[in-house]
UniProtKB/TrEMBL annotation, chains A, B:
InterPro entries: HTH_LacI, LacI/GalR-like_sensor, Lambda_DNA-bd_dom_sf, Peripla_BP_I
Superkingdom of the organism of origin: Bacteria
HTH lacI-type domain span: 5-59
Keyword list, A-Z: DNA-binding, Transcription, Transcription regulation
Entry keyword annotation includes Aminoacyl-tRNA synthetase: no
Protein name in the entry: LacI family transcriptional regulator
Species for this entry: Agromyces soli
Keyword Ligase carried by entry: no
Listed Pfam families: LacI, Peripla_BP_3
Length: 341, 341
DNA sequence: CTGAAAGCGCTTACAG
DNA sequence: CTGAAAGCGCTTACAG
């Protein structure tokens, strides 16, 4: 007996042909119960695992999906990953999370990712260069974008309803009687900053009120940004009764600076964030915020990819899915008792 | 001209043999400058990318490494991943992060991971079943363990010096004059709980003091665990001047409960954590803790894998690397001013 | 329901 | 320094 390996060894042990073993494995054509049993016994006896390289060489599929993120230490992305796995594992796909380390690193990693011939790629990227867009389109790899359209024919995308979330925050604050409401954005040129401010304006308009441009400042999406934002707003006026921040980190920095100035939250001034990161519930007072449905974004992205991979969908129009967000009211806007010391 | 693809198309365009193209790609044997130039021109013209499946089928290598973690939403693991990438990308390996979703999920995912024939796997797992250990050993895949030995011949492991970190915390507290120091552990049977308490005892012994067993309680590694721990400790006595917690989450819960009881941190009682998660700097007062060198753990694990993969190391003895930890002193033990309101 | 054979795209001895 | 050929382990028409 020659020393065979792989599927040939299984075939020999089971006393059937190599093709029959393959059919048992794939289920692509009917196999008699007796044969199937012999083959499965041989597989178990030999501890056989198909070689994925050989498989993909023929089938042109790798059964793996990549999630390419700019910064895996940002807690938003692990949640997206978990959501994608929810959908992909039961469908037989393996999800690989690839960290580019930064927005600019994404382009650099893209080449490596395309080389590996993943069946599909999910990516969250701010500025995709024309060269990268062309590489993606040519590669034939299915792409789903998170957060924004990346402008490739047939590439679907999923985003959360930022504007709606800020409209809810605005309504909540207006509903509790706050009127002198400042806004601290992240980088002024960023899409999220604009969309989020837009949602706040919408809440004011809905209540028949105008929103004053002098009530907005733009800094950066960081804790320091929040501190700077408060400093800038309090130079303009000092009677704010609420501060809406473009994300939770800004809000936490804003609370630091408000506390340093001897102001009480929420008795003197209410503060809100966005994203509902873990820290939002950990800080004191706990932060009213909006849940960014990261996990659901991941699930949706995975479903869109699977649909495209199932074929037939090649000529389907690009899909754009917007997920609604949920207001999470905590103590920073509504604490009934005066702040404890 | 027949319609070739892959390396054959490159060979035809360049007017050389398929083997020569392969040699240019791999650098495995000398190629004349002129030939190399022709081949590279053809590669660029055709936008050729080698097929990884075909490559691994022959070479028995995938040039990819997997990091298998129990819960990617635990911020410790993304940092480990970043550290591994620091080392692996320059070496030409792609790192795939795979999330098992839970400790128990790790075994379930292991089969899928082994099927993919990664060249190496890094994993952090508490209880590896004998069956899984056998599967890992048989697969021939290189394994490096994070946090503990998994008992496979030739599998190195990396851990951080928990005991040393707690010894530093203990010395810091004793040095600031605290003596009535309680300890809130996680699950009592867990290795980390034992090791960490051991470090604290060591600090007392070093100062010529004894440590009282009645000063320890075990709960769980969560925020709720911290609340419960305080309740349990204050049933025993009420004059604690410091609480050492087995991780940051416990510490944050402990601070919640101390504050609720009207105690001031650190004026009445100091609190310490472990890990230095982001939230440790975000809470108020900011938390004195110990940095768990996650990124360095990742780097070290990656280096160990690469060394083994470079061969020659097959018969090298198992390596066990312990990384030292760093004390991070913040306001929860030393705030010079009375706590602000 | 089953088998023999071609071929996916590479790498690697073997020859020259 | 270069080429022809075998073969890695599968899947998939083609035949029966």
């Amino acid at each position: 007996m020659t020393q065979k390996s792989g599927i040939a060894a299984v075939a020999e042990t089971a006393g059937v042909s190599v093709s029959t073993v393959s059919q048992v494995l794939s289920g692509n054509r009917p196999v008699s119960e007796a044969t199937r049993a012999k083959v499965n016994a041989a597989i178990a006896e030999l501890g056989y695992t198909p070689h994925p390289g050989a498989r993909s060489l023929r089938s042109r599929r790798t059964e793996s999906i990549a999630l390419l993120v700019p910064d895996i230490t940002n807690p938003f992305y692990p949640l997206v990953a978990v959501g994608m796995q929810d959908v992909l594992l039961p469908a037989g796909y393996l999800l690989s999370i690839l960290d580019a380390g930064s927005q600019s690193g994404t382009g650099r990693l893209l080449g490596h990712v395309l080389e590996r011939r993943f069946d599909g790629i999910a990516l969250h990227i701010d500025g995709l260069s024309d060269a990268d867009r062309a590489r993606l389109a040519e590669s034939g790899t299915r792409v789903v974008a998170l957060g924004r359209d990346i402008g490739i024919e047939g590439s679907d995308y999923v985003e959360s309803d930022d504007a709606g979330g800020f409209a809810k925050l605005g309504e909540h604050l207006l509903g509790t009687g706050r009127r002198r409401i400042g806004f601290i954005g992240g980088e002024e040129e960023s899409d999220p900053s604009r969309l989020r401010l837009g949602g706040l304006r919408q809440a004011f308009a809905g209540a028949g009120l105008g929103y004053d441009d002098a009530a907005t400042v733009f800094t950066s999406f960081t804790r320091d940004g929040g501190r700077d934002g408060i400093a800038a707003l309090y130079e303009r006026r000092t009677d704010w009764d609420a501060i809406v921040c473009a994300n939770d980190l800004i809000a936490i920095g804003a609370m630091d600076e408000l506390r340093r100035r001897g102001l009480s939250i929420p008795a003197d001034v209410a503060v809100t964030g966005y994203d509902d990161i873990d820290a939002a519930a950990l800080v004191h007072p706990s932060l009213t915020t909006v849940e960014n449905p990261a996990r659901e974004i991941g699930r949706t992205a995975a479903r869109l990819l699977l649909t495209r991979l199932a074929g037939d969908g090649d000529d389907a129009p690009t899909q754009h899915i917007t997920l609604s967000t949920r207001l999470v009211v905590r103590d920073s806007t509504t604490s009934p008792i005066p702040q404890e010391r």
